[in-house]
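TODO from last week: model mevalonate kinase.
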Amino acid sequence: MRAASAPGKIILTGEHAVVHGVPATAMAVKRHIRALLLEDDSGVLRWKDPFSGRQISYTHAQLQQRSELLALRYDAWQQGHLAIHEILPSPTDLLVYSVAQALQGTDLPGGDLTWRSDLPVGSGMGSSAAFIAVLLRLFSPEVLSAEALMHQVHFCERLQHGKGSYIDAAAVSLGGCVAVQGKNLTSLASPALAEDWYWIFTGVPLSSTGECVDRVRQQFSHSEIWQAFAAIARQWHTATVTERSELVRENHRLLCRLGVVPRAVQALIQQIERLGGAAKISGAGSIHGEAAGLVLVWLPGLNPAALNLPEPMHWGVLEEEVQGAVSFRL
């Protein structure tokens, strides 16, 4: 049996801004997607789709054919013939494409693929990158370095996010804390976040990361707002806890100006600020609906239980995962 695991991530600074050349910092978190492959000689790969719950099976030829179709759809998006959310007809197509990219002409090991996850899908916690990293680790014929894995994850993830950044791919591949600016990557020492840092899942956004990134690019490509994001990024690593909380508040106000923080999430963050805390979305947010995926929270002396969160919101303690995506045999 083969197995693989990849962590999720949370963006500390620079969501959206990273796409426009501003440094962003992310941290891998102790929430994971895990997969187990029980091999056989059938030449058919079978799994229960983690998105729809349907049973799915593919031969090598079917994987390759589907992968080529998805590549053509990406080209069509680049040429303006498809919207970003139309590249992938279904979420599972991203998994199919990732397996095909991992194999790179080698034989498909048949068998049953099973999933286990405590990483919320569509939360802004890097689930797409984690799914891809797990599959690349499982099916690549060679053991990829962490940096090579990062580039492969980013290549596959373009079908989901369009012209996205390396931030998710870097965090889930390398683990720990990473800073990304364009294609430049720096592994950082632990950000030493105190026990008062949490995450809140506000629900699955109605708009995808790609849609949000496209909307912001259309409206703010030449805006001076990115200079304000850059100032936050420069101060983050040397800031005290109190200074970081103020940076989070400023980051939140900038994200509100971008139009990616729904009103219900703004109300939640106002409640946190009234209690002496600070919070912001961590991820693309949403341009539709009232959910925005993940929110990064600093709440000194309290925890999010004090907020009486409505369903389906839930929360957890922010914990760093120093290990990136790995594979192993059982």
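Done. The first strand starts at residue 2 and ends at 13.
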